[in-house]
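Predict the structure of Triacylglycerol lipase.
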Amino acid sequence: MGSFGGKVWSNDTIKNQPVIFVHGLTLRAGVFIPHYYWFLNKGYSPGELYATTYADGGITPFWSKPMYCADVKQVRNFIKQVHEYTNSSVDVIGYSMGTAISRKALLGGKCVDTGEDLGPPLTDIVDTFIGVAGVARGYEQCPTTFPACNLINGMNCGSRYLEDVNGQDKKYEAQNSYYIYSMGDTVIGTQCCGHLCPEVKNADGFSQYRVHNHGSILTETKDIQYEMIVNHKVIQPRGAF
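Done. Here is the predicted structure for Triacylglycerol lipase.
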């Protein structure tokens, strides 16, 4: 699925802050269909849940796909359009590389690969940002010989792109920001240039797991994501998770 979201009827009332889901590398908007139905069951309406597919939806092989300014602009414009369409502040959940794409989209400023100026931060229109299993500080095993790991707009923790989004002195993603990760996530790893790879700088809190993998940390923490969005509450897991 390439995208979803929008009111069923033009006079539908927006009761909950719309949630915008941003997928990861080689994925599409459809990865969030389970989230869509889960949030519907929690009282959200179709006009309050949004996702779009940036880039080519997985046609380009994993190691050949860096984080282009075009991807960032698409997500940034989508966030602005949802805000304008619903006349509401929004929430953003970024997964995997979608965390890095979302953060630059929200930060604005100049793209490191093209020099284009995206404009000012979107902090004022975003209530809550969550990075789930995010490439926030980088991707641990990311040799610079691969395009996806280049030192300009790649996922290597030393890239100019990641230095840009992590070089800010204060929180810019939203009024409230959080991240969710698992020490058992062998995809993004844990150690990135002296930091935890999924760490969102200046976040208000985080939820840490032990055995979830890169996929299950997204699908099995919907309740945690919901609490962060609705109640700005961080819940830590119990038991062997």
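The chain has one domain: 3-231.
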